Amino acid sequence: MSILVRDPLLARMACMFMRHGEKTKSMAIIEEAVVELRRRHGVERPVEFIHSAVENAKPLVETIKWKSGGRAIQMPVPCRPARAESLALRLLRDSFRLRKEHGAGLRLAGELVDLSNKTGRTRTRRDDMHRSAEANKAYVYFRKA
């Protein structure tokens, strides 16, 4: 558990992946994923690998619902760095839980490898967010300065 305590991203990831207050289980999942990245995928520095994978999942823009003239529009806004990291971790959590491998550590390691290759469900959902923002870029002028 030493790498999880020292690295703020991994500690935040453990809190984000937690279910029913069982933080030790989420820490064990992340440690199992680190072991799998080293053993099965040949990653020499798994912590830096996880950082780069989360960077690939961070969205640059998102859309927010905005009421204007009695109708709701999707207005694109840029993501702040903390919000982008939070969204990336949430997308990663939801995506690795939907994978079909046996064992949460294997699923997380597989999703991280897919993210480093810029593929996978997490990257697809990030690209969908960007596409939605691109499609609604005409509504940017509603944003107040």
Automatic annotation (TrEMBL):
This is Uncharacterized protein. It comes from Pyropia yezoensis (Susabi-nori).
